[in-house]
């Protein structure tokens, strides 16, 4: 993520992105960052405000879903019998 180049640019409305961050204990975790530069009436940079969220659990869940989808696809592709899928409406 290019925080310095984007958040210090008055033409950038909002910074959104994912990035790894190093914690005090030396571990790296994925974070979601949303930030906005703050400018005075003369266009001078005053600072910025950011919301940083740990998305470790979200990433873990997404990976589990992908693994389940891959397993389901593998099973259905190798099955010798017909497999019918339906939602709760029967379609």
Secondary-structure topology with pairs:
Blueprint (H helix, E strand, L loop, with lengths): L2 H5 L7 E8 L5 E12 L5 E10 L1 H23 L13
Antiparallel strand pairs: 1-2, 2-3
Which bin fits the share of residues in helices? 25-40%
On the 0-100 scale, what is the average pLDDT?
86
| Oligomeric state, counting identical vs distinct chains | single chain
Secondary-structure content class = alpha+beta
Q: What is the CATH C-level name?
A: Alpha Beta
Number of strands: 3
Order of helices and strands: HEEEH
Tally of individual helices: 2
Shape: elongated
Q: How much strand content do the residues show?
A: 25-35%
CATH architecture: 2-Layer Sandwich
Sequence stretches where pLDDT stays below 50 over 5 or more residues: none
Biggest beta-sheet profile: 3 strands, antiparallel
How many independent structural domains?
Answer: 1
Overview of the structural elements:
A three-stranded antiparallel beta sheet has the order 1-2-3. With 91 residues, it is an alpha+beta fold. Strand 1 and strand 2 (28-39) form a beta hairpin. Helix content is 31%, strand content 33%. It is elongated, with a radius of gyration of 22 Å.
Could you provide a short overview of the structure?
By secondary structure, the protein is α+β, with helices and mostly antiparallel strands.
Note the main attributes of this structure:
single chain; 91 residues; Beta-Lactamase; 3-stranded antiparallel beta sheet
């Amino acid at each position: 993520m290019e925080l310095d180049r984007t958040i210090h640019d008055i033409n950038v409305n909002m910074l959104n992105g994912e990035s790894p961050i190093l914690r005090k204990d030396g571990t790296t975790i994925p974070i979601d960052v949303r930030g906005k530069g703050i400018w005075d009436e003369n266009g001078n940079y005053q600072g910025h405000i950011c919301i940083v969220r740990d998305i470790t659990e979200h990433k873990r869940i997404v990976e589990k879903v992908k693994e389940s989808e891959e397993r389901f696809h593998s099973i259905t592709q190798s099955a010798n019998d017909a497999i019918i899928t339906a939602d709760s409406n029967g379609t």
